[in-house]
Amino acid sequence: MEKRVITNQQASINYPLILIQSSSNLGFAAGNNLGIRYVLSKGHSDYIMLLNNDIIVRKDFLVKLLSFMEDHSTAGVAGPKIIDEKGEIDKNNLRRRLRLLDIIFIMGIGKALLPNNRWQKRHRYTDEYNFKYPKKIDIINGACMLFKTKVLKNIGLLDENTFLHLEEFILHEKLRRTNWGTWIIPDSEIIHKGSKAISLRTSSFMRKVTLESLVYYLKNYRKVHYVIMIILIANILLLNSVVIFKGFILPKGGRD
């Protein structure tokens, strides 16, 4: 297929679109690694971008990302400002490395008890960054990430031991072992329709894979003691129980 596309004399494009079919749904990391390995096998790309399928790009968004990366030798990963279809900034544009209390108040029962708490604000750089200038941060949104190819070679691609969620946090841990920085470039902007693929999955499935990803991340990248891990996971399970209970008890209009 690739050969036919590239050698097609009727084609009016300079850079062909290559579709790679997988025999199964591999999840975010392993699925993206299929494409990354293909690019690396060609050996002539300085950059690789991961872009979700529910994205609308702005004109020159990529040029602005590339320009910044070219001018900053230690910038290894960069992402744009992400807004939703209403023009509001995506709350997960940028995030800090998780602390243990963050997990309780961002992902656990503390989220329900204290909405918009100070742990959430700190985690998302709320009130300290206004998207007016590029900023070096811990974690950018995985919906759009531009890598220098040599960075992916350096860190060994994405960790394929999770199906979905926590990929950006695992990536950050890998980058922490190197001198490569992660940047958000607000002059570059995209629109994220938001979880269109995820919405096709059931809530119970999403809770399951998220929990599995968190356990893997805490155990393998943060070396959290199993007793502490049990406490953290119990907090998340408690929040899930509350959400499920509200879903059954409350009328549709009253659900969170």
Which keywords apply here?
256 residues; alpha+beta; 6-stranded mixed β-sheet; disordered C terminus
| Secondary structure: helix percent | 40-55%
Tally the helices.
10
Number of strands: 8
Measured between the Cα atoms of the first and last residue, the distance is 47 Å
Mean pLDDT: 88
Overall form: globular
Give the low-confidence spans.
250-256
Q: Strand-residue fraction?
A: 15-25%
The helix/strand series, from N terminus to C terminus, equals HHEEHEEHHHEEEHHEHH
Summed up, what is this model?
The chain has 256 residues and is α+β, with helices and mostly antiparallel strands. It is 43% helix and 16% strand. The chain has helices at 2-7, 27-42, 61-71, 100-107, 109-113, 118-123, 149-155, 167-176, 203-220, 226-249, and strands at 47-51, 55-57, 75-83, 94-95, 135-137, 139-140, 144-148, 181-192.
What this model shows, in words?
The chain is of the alpha+beta class. The protein is 43% helix and 16% strand. It contains ten helices and eight strands. Strands 1, 2, 3, 5, 7 and 8 form a six-stranded mixed sheet that branches. It has a two-stranded antiparallel sheet with strand order 4-6. Helix 4 packs parallel to helix 10 (226-249) and helix 9 runs antiparallel to helix 10. The radius of gyration is 20 Å and the shape is globular. The model is unreliable at 250-256 (pLDDT under 50).
